[in-house]
Here is the input.
Amino acid sequence: MTHRQVKDVMTTDVRTVYVGAPAKVVAEQLEAEQVSALPVVDDDFHVVGVVSEADLLHKITYQDDVDDRPRLLRRHRADRAKAEAASARTLMTSPAVTIRPGASVVEAAALMERQHVKRLPVVDDTGELVGIVSRRDLVRLFTRPDEEIRSEVEQEVFGQVLMLAPGTAAAWVANGHVTLRGRLPRRSETQIVAELTRRIDGVVGVANAMTFEQDDTTYRALREDVASRGIYY
Here is the structure.
């Protein structure tokens, strides 16, 4: 099944901070918007970084640090630099981890996990900011109404993909859990139905209670099928 795209779930009314904004203004904007991070943009509204509460916390962490001994750890040097930052330009994390509006929600979730970020600025082909997608936006997919999920299973999986006759199969959905029932000619077809259903956005789990007339998934079954058509080996 085709997953929803980032553009379908992203927020388009995005609050940003200018790259030259003083650190105090950054803090004020984070507080005013009640968010933990903001995209940093330049004069052309291109995303050049992301500034977060964690970046600002370095100023508190190193406020009383009088240890002048050289530190070799790159992480320490980066944190120290942010503690001394005076503007978003030197405070932000750059380059920003971004995503395109046409990417799937699965790609967005994987990128967030891989990069350990909670949100992704969404940019167009020129790098201009067009939205932002957060973990909350992706989690919201699991709040899809059960009836909406059932309708997608029956119309797209049963109808469009397998082209089953009405009444051949049915789906029951409760709290995102889908139970599949019906009888199909082959076991492989029931497995395809279950796999496609599992890929639908908002599905929490799938219980495959479908039955079949022929098990075509074993080596013996394949030999018997070939033999029935007059081919021997």
